[in-house]
Design a protein that fits this description.
This protein is of the alpha/beta class and about 350 residues long. The protein contains 13 helices and 13 strands. Strands 6, 7, 8, 9, 10, 11 and 13 form a seven-stranded mixed sheet that branches.
Amino acid sequence: MDQRKRPTIRDVAQEAKVSVATVNRVLSGSEAVRQGTRERVMLAAQQIGFYGMGALRSRVAAARPRYRFGFLLHQPGRAFYHNVAEALRLSAGVIADCEIEVRTEFLDDLSPQHIASRMLALGQECDALGVVAAVHPLVVQAVDTLQARNVPVFALISQISATGEIHYVGLDNWKVGRTAAWAFEHLCREPGKLGILVGNHRYRCQEMNESGFRSYFREHAPGFTLLEPLLTYESRAVAQEMTEKLLTDHPDLSGLYVAGGGITGAIAALRSTRRAGKLIVVGYELMDVTRAALLDGTLTFVISHPLARIAQEALAGMVRAVSAPGEAGSLTAILPFDIYTRENI
């Protein structure tokens, strides 16, 4: 093609390997063109510098399906959930063939009653819902109500149902717990006492973390003593208090496993008691505070959710569930987790 000549519709058709009539239908906004073909025509036009790109983009965007997906996440003061929200926002902007609006709420009140009521309210405004929640009859009832209204619900991070009937995107937390146990077995100089912090046993992810953790020691390292877990109730302050209690009650503690919410409180306690770097500590999620704790030796080993992958899988699953209701069945995406030490961050 003569580079001095302005590209024409015929040039676009040739580049996209479609007919001139198809390009004209895309430009006119006709519904008689598949969305994939519209996208291909727009890409071809962009590659050759077609003069009508503005009109073409608006026509293609207008023809894309539009979805509004709602997400209920935990407390606004927790960096991890802000990172989850940002990953969802970024992923929504790059999913092809549709326009996605992400609506996110951060909940301070994590009671089952409040979560269930917010699920029902947000479900009235959205095409699908993603939620981090503990297992509770009220939450399950809200899920059933929403799905009866054809509003798919996806459990993120922690499963809501043990039977696989509710869509889930997250980790295999049994493996997470066993991997944490492997770290203690190989990093502790000798078997000793290990403390365990759990946010709330009603979170299936945390329950499975602890179960997998204990199963590994029963099988491979029975010489360790696993203390009964202390609850943090997903609170930084409570986690700090419980960690200080463990360190006071068990001065010979060899390690600490933070199997649920409260990692920032545990880090604060280790530093304030001057025990940072003197015992093996395994926790969750790579973020600013845990990165710093790895670097200064307060944390030894971090297991982290791959947030970009979780966001991509959740949004793609929601699109499938909404665009083809009843056809996809239960959507479960078990993703590999990331492992960090001070040497690979």
